[in-house]
Amino acid sequence: MRQVLITGHGDPNRLELRDTPEPQPGNQALRIRIRASGINFADILARQGLYPDAPKPPCVVGYEVSGHVDAVGAGVRGDWVGKDVFALTRFGGYADTVVVPESQVFEKPAVLSHEQCAAIPVNYLTAWQLLVVMGALNAGETVLVHNAGGGVGLAAIDIARHLGATIYGTASPGKHAFLKARGLHAAIDYVNQDWTRELARLTDGRGVELILDPLGGSHWKQSFKALRHTGRLGMFGVSTATQSRLPGRLRLIPLGLGMPLFHPLSLMNQNRSVFGVNLGHLWHEVDKIRRWMQALLQGVAEGWVRPHVDKTFPLAQAGEAQAYIEARKNIGKVVLTT
Ligand SMILES: NC(=O)c1ccc[n+]([C@@H]2O[C@H](COP(=O)([O-])OP(=O)(O)OC[C@H]3O[C@@H](n4cnc5c(N)ncnc54)[C@H](OP(=O)(O)O)[C@@H]3O)[C@@H](O)[C@H]2O)c1
Question: Is 317 in the pocket of ligand 1 (CB under 6 A)?
């Protein structure tokens, strides 16, 4: 089998394709022959040495795949063999074969391609947890989705639209027309503009009920200030860590220094709340994840879950694929194909 290895922390050329022996499924596991693997921003942070959850190099990252089952362990129903599936993988997704616990595997809906299915698990589950489970977004409320043109951003637009909310989003200007066509009510250029002013203008100074913020550091302070009373801030990433020019993990220092401190009494008196989401720390809550996925698969059937694949790259070009995202060129998902 073939895998893409992170050989050491650094730029995209630290990703190398290698041949390795075939894995055999353990008792409760299935083996998937992968057709498509989703790329996530966390994979880029892992390559740069900025993602504490990643294994130490040399390692194979990748949180999600779509393909077909060709072997199962003794404790797994034999009728999985031959089925098209998609799955959450706790690393190992940048490959043409992976072994996954049965609890993390879902049947692939026939209406979606393997590439589209590889775009569902991380993006849509994260957006569901942010908007529905912890953000409690209701019809008629307003939400600001930062980085609305990324994979999680597009998933959040689909779900917020389904819930009947008014959706504002920040993104690089070249993505605005596409995002409005997807259902964003107003797009804000956060690269060249002060987004806080623009949001205040759009909301007549009131702010919004929910903000999804994967930028981190001082952005969380600004987002908290932009909440309307009864507002919720969902923090779920530190994308800005990659922007510092400091070497290695020192890049996390400006991020840490810029972070807000929330005082309980101030939260109480402002009628605001803050919460964190990290899907990668929910492996022990697979029952919840499966329930959320059932709701999302219902969304696929009803047509409001619309995974958008921007570009595919062959497995051997994983470095180019990550560089494409780092250059902010992607709208939605970038997928590796075998
Ligand atoms: N906690 C969780 O469970 C969880 C799960 C999934 C993702 N996340 C986090 O959510 C964020 C978005 O993830 P994603 O997979 O949706 O992203 P993605 O699809 O890889 O989106 C990349 C986009 O992010 C924007 N961006 C913002 N800051 C950037 C930077 N410093 N360098 C490069 N691009 C930057 C760019 O678009 P624009 O310039 O147009 O905005 C870029 O095109 C990441 O921080 C990720 O770690 C967290």
Answer: no
Strand partners, 18: 3
Give the model's confidence band at 80: pLDDT under 50 very low, under 70 low, under 90 confident, else very high: very high
Query: Are 167 and 157 in contact, with CB atoms under 8 Å apart?
Result: yes
Beta carbon of 244 within 6 Å of any ligand 1 atom: no
Contact 188 CB / ligand 1 (< 6 Å): no
- Token duo for residue 265: 């009494």
Look at the block and give the residue holding tokens 């550091």: 217
Mutate to test the pocket of ligand 1, among 130, 328, 331 (most ligand atoms within 8 A of CB): 328
CA quadruple 29, 51, 42, 153: dihedral sign: positive
Spell out where the chain has E strands.
2-6, 15-19, 29-38, 64-72, 84-88, 97-101, 105-107, 142-145, 166-171, 186-189, 208-213, 227-235, 273-276, 309-314, 333-337
Six token digits for residue 239: 């994308």
User: What pLDDT was estimated at residue 248?
Assistant: 76
Give bridge partners of residue 210 from the DSSP assignment: 143, 232
